[in-house]
Amino acid sequence: MSVKPRPRGKLVAIGGAEDKSAKAAILGRVLKLSNSETPVVGVITTASSIPDEVYPAYEEAFDALGAGEVLDVRIRERRDADDPKMVEMIRRCDVLFISGGDQMRLTSIFGASKSLEAIRSIYHEGAVIAGTSAGAACQSTTMVYGGSAIDSLRKGAVKMSAGFGLIEGVIIDTHFLERGRFSRLMEVGATNPEYLGIGLGEDAAVLFEGGIIKAFGPGHVILVDSSRITSCNVFDLSDGEAVSVHNVVMHALVEGDGYNLADRQVLSAKQLGAESLELKDAYT
Amino acid sequence: MSVKPRPRGKLVAIGGAEDKSAKAAILGRVLKLSNSETPVVGVITTASSIPDEVYPAYEEAFDALGAGEVLDVRIRERRDADDPKMVEMIRRCDVLFISGGDQMRLTSIFGASKSLEAIRSIYHEGAVIAGTSAGAACQSTTMVYGGSAIDSLRKGAVKMSAGFGLIEGVIIDTHFLERGRFSRLMEVGATNPEYLGIGLGEDAAVLFEGGIIKAFGPGHVILVDSSRITSCNVFDLSDGEAVSVHNVVMHALVEGDGYNLADRQVLSAKQLGAESLELKDAYT
């Protein structure tokens, strides 16, 4: 959209239900992306209504995967999000991981807080910010927070709000294949074709780095590109009426595939070339 | 949110139903902001379903107010938005005016088009971009496009989507006092307190310039600042349930008042000081 200094950090969005075992493909790579032997990993469970169950599972997983230290960044209400102790914890992180739950908990509790400022600032300085499910959906400027999977291609069916703004020009949806959410991102694209829909399957992830998306993990990543839609009736409808939209382009990416956000081109593992090799180094 | 080169142009959002007579306070000022004696003014009526009525009214108004030339940038479908003639017309404009209607027509037709690229680029190079009603609502990164005025403080009642992204960190609503839309921006703020709600009354406007908002015109501008909300239940609700939100701060601005977006402080005409004088020069 305009020239903006690119964050030096790395952003990872995960589709939910990622493997947390010792073989965890995605979580293991998230740690490796930090380029630290013993990264400090902070876990934010604000999105979840059961943090006492969620946190220990991640603590164990990250410990097993080689974290130097795992921090429980326990933010439950708005006042916690301005607590200097929480801000200090976030600032220490090489990797900050945002758990699943409800993305509106994240935006409503973190919006305009010192903790959110700290997240942005470590991201710009070089940290890895990763999130799964709600923790992925919240990353974009405008986010999806609801909408029936059965038929969201009806005006007003998809619920959107303002997200954390860590990545521009995309809208991220999760549990995408498992819950059949294709129609949600088709409606989103109809309302504004400029936004690339990123539908993350479970145990699938994307890395955003330097204007390129890279898919990884065992699952699928579906891209919904509405930039070339030729016509659409969404503005002629009342709420609940069926949306027509022509010429939506979709891509199903798997591990090793990439995508150039600027020119909207899929990049095969081969085309990613040197960059891909570089990634492999970081991963293994 | 991050360091971004500030556009050299000026952005004006108008609440709708602005005076179009020879005394038109707001439209007259919009032309003056161009610092051109005889500005070229382009009018985009894409949001409207009756462009043949809307365009001539603005043509007459801008002619009477001293435009050097008024251009009918007639974009009705997505293919028009990529038409080089339209792009060329937009690039000639000192002032680009976006009429009212339905903001979803604007985003759905302009999204990912060459015309939208041209609008962004003239804005960054120094042009005045102004819009009324739908033409104002579309300016932010996340926009409101619907929601009952009677009671929008219910989860999911406010309809949001991705806008043109000309201004970050705010969400603009229009016809605000006339249609009693306070509850819409209160719900928006509850979902993400980081976003300042700007509720524009009819025949009221704001100028965005250098991180400052300046109110002008005969009507009111209501600011809804949710950044200090202490608690909110929106994430605990199902769709349609009543949202609670505590400590929302509102300001009613009139002509001459300002607001600093970074520190969320109202600036009186006096506090605007030299800047205010400068504005007056530009206005008269």
UniProtKB/TrEMBL annotation, chains A, B:
It is an enzyme of class 3 (hydrolase). It catalyses: [L-4-(L-arginin-2-N-yl)aspartate](n) + H2O = [L-4-(L-arginin-2-N-yl)aspartate](n-1) + L-4-(L-arginin-2-N-yl)aspartate. The keyword Hydrolase applies. Keywords: Hydrolase, Protease, Serine protease. Its EC number is 3.4.15.6. SUPFAM superfamilies: Class I glutamine amidotransferase-like. GO terms for biological process: proteolysis. The keyword Zinc does not apply. The active site is at residues 133, 175, 202. It comes from the Bacteria. One of its GO terms (molecular function) is serine-type peptidase activity. Gene3D superfamilies: 3.40.50.880. InterPro entries: Class_I_gatase-like (IPR029062), Peptidase_S51 (IPR005320), Peptidase_S51_cyanophycinase (IPR011811). Belongs to the peptidase S51 family. Exopeptidase that catalyzes the hydrolytic cleavage of multi-L-arginyl-poly-L-aspartic acid (cyanophycin; a water-insoluble reserve polymer) into aspartate-arginine dipeptides. This is Cyanophycinase.
